[in-house]
User: What shape does this take?
Amino acid sequence: MNATAKPFYIGTVRLSAPVILAPMAGVCDLPYRVIAHRYGAALVCTEMVSDKGLLYHNVHTQDMLRIAPEEHPVSMQIFGADPHTMAKAAASVEEAGADIIDINMGCPVKKVVTNGEGAALMRDLSRAEAIIRAVVQAVSIPVTVKMRTGWNEEEFAAPELAKRAEAAGAAAVTVHGRTREQFYSGKADLKKIAAVVRAVSIPVIGNGDIIDGPSAARMFDETGCQAIMVGRGAQGNPWIFPQIRAYLESGTIQSPPSPAERYRQMLEHFQALRAYKGDYTALREMRSHAAWYTKGLYGSAAIRERLNRAESTAVFESLIRTLLEKEEH
Assistant: This one.
């Protein structure tokens, strides 16, 4: 096994291990980033932030710039299609206290790519390079780029984009081993990530299908990447970070969390969401998190149905506490 859990650097930023929480919309808000960091994510990444939202001082977008002292180091991801506005957005993000700026060049969502943003930039490499260069020149903190392998199987643009990112001053690149057309279907192509590793001298972070210690080790072994990024495997599952680190350090496979541990963490997460976003938003957003926390548990479908029907935070919290008490006695 080539993987280790030793410290890893992105530019001047030291990470305690090469294990990173991916930027995920609807998942990586401040409360969950704090949780993931506490469990062992050496770097946490924010949900993607719109350059135009920052430029026009959109209230929701500005709120996404909030960083808790205990979540550092934190990478803030921005997206856009114009070098000038992306540079301004990057300066705002640095001022907000981010340790690293990540540029999204992999989002497959239609409303993003229709504007020439996200994965659409893999079809416009000159513009992509200009954006990276403008962002790097606008800030003093490290800049990274997250991409897919390409738009489709025929367009394997990642090695060339990675080379351009390196030339433009990026400190590292992350490659999700799927095409834009795949979205999240099929399997991540580790051979294509390996090709990107061979193409550049800056660190490459491997992303895709990492669900436990062995799959993390496979990503390292088969690609030669210098770090790994965990996406969907971390949804409702912060335990994945200590599991991966233990496996990389000693080959140890940790036991999965007990139902009681899951309910306890779910309750803490809900309380943090309420404190951060208020009752109305917390109740609605926690339904998705609850589905992930309870996945695979006995009677999980019925549990989810009861939680989804809860019309107040008091009822929702009472349900979680009842489930927790049942497991503890």
Q: What stands out?
A: Residues 259-277 form the longest helix (19 residues). The domain at 259-328 is CATH 1.10.1200 (Non-ribosomal Peptide Synthetase Peptidyl Carrier Protein; Chain A). The chain has two domains: 8-250, 259-328.
